[in-house]
Structure prediction request, 155 residues.
Amino acid sequence: ALAKRVEDFKMRSEGLYVSAAHNFIESLLLHAFLSVEQDITIDDEKFEFVSLVNRFRVLLQRDFKEHKKVSYYADELRIPARKLTEMTEYVSGKKAKQIIIEKIIKESENALKFSSQTISEISYNLGFNDEGNFTTFLKKHTGRIPSEMREVSYN
Prediction:
């Protein structure tokens, strides 16, 4: 059924087809990665940190539109939120919340640069309740509003 839906996009637009196919493949890979049993014996705490931070990033890629809180990802990994933040700081030098924020900003910038959707549609697709919340988020974290980010991308 999913393959049929992707094929339907091909008839509408090549761009939609490529995007739908990409999302379909990414979804399959993320699902497969998260389904693999973690039966590896970990002797080294640092390896465990890297492994859990990688799993966090996979979960983030899959769920960032619906879940923007560190506690959600920590619960999914079955560790305390503080432990997840300690691990991300050790592995990447950034707190877990900062990694989430950077992911949302990156996806926002890509959508504003490469999508013909309205800012309101983009904000909804990225999991914001309304365009105002989206604008406030971007202004707080980038110093720019969506329309400014979109203008820069076309110049």
About this structure: The chain has a mean pLDDT of 83. The longest helix spans residues 14-35. The CA atoms of residues 107 and 126 lie 8 Å apart.
